[in-house]
Amino acid sequence: MLTVHEITRDDGSLSPVGLRVEGEALCIVEEDDGLPLPDGALESVMKRFGGPIDDRARLHEVDALALPGGAALKRMRHKGFYDVIAKDYLVLEVDGQEPLCALATTVAGALSHVAHAYRRATV
Questions:
Q1: DSSP one-letter code for 52
Q2: Quick check: helix, strand or coil at residue 120?
């Protein structure tokens, strides 16, 4: 599982939000519950909220997830000179395309919304 975000529970503990591949499907995992995402959801979210990587950015790879079809999703960390806390970004790498980079928190929220809507629509 590729951790993409953490949620603070009511008791103050942290609960990871992650992405994992189950068969040929990408799922978002919240509170140990895996919700399938519709085909193309990750690519759509990354195109909507992401952009090309700034060549000047110093990103350090934290983790990676191999996706169906040969693509890869990487969690990258950036801590600018003025930052107190590092920010995590997701980078989607698809063969033959420019990598897309987006703030991990934004992607996690959008994918969670899509997964919950998809579950309601398919029940």
A1: P
A2: helix
Residue type, 30: E
Calpha distance 59→116 (Å, rounded): 31
Taking the CA atoms of 41, 67, 21 and 101 in sequence, report the sign of the dihedral they define. Answer: negative
Coil/strand/helix, residue 113: helix
Put simply, whether the predicted model's pTM sits higher than 0.70 gets the answer yes
How far is it, in rounded angstroms, from Cα 49 to Cα 17?
18
Residue 68 DSSP code: G
* Tokens 């590729």, residue located: 2
Residue type, 57: A
CA distances (Å), 11 to each of 6, 8, 14, 73, in order?
14, 8, 9, 31
Q: Distance between CA 52 and CA 47 in Å, rounded?
A: 10
Residues 24-51 have pLDDT tens digits of: 899 999 987 899 999 999 999 999 999 9
- Compute, in degrees rounded to 10, the torsion defined by CA atoms 25, 29, 36, 97: -50
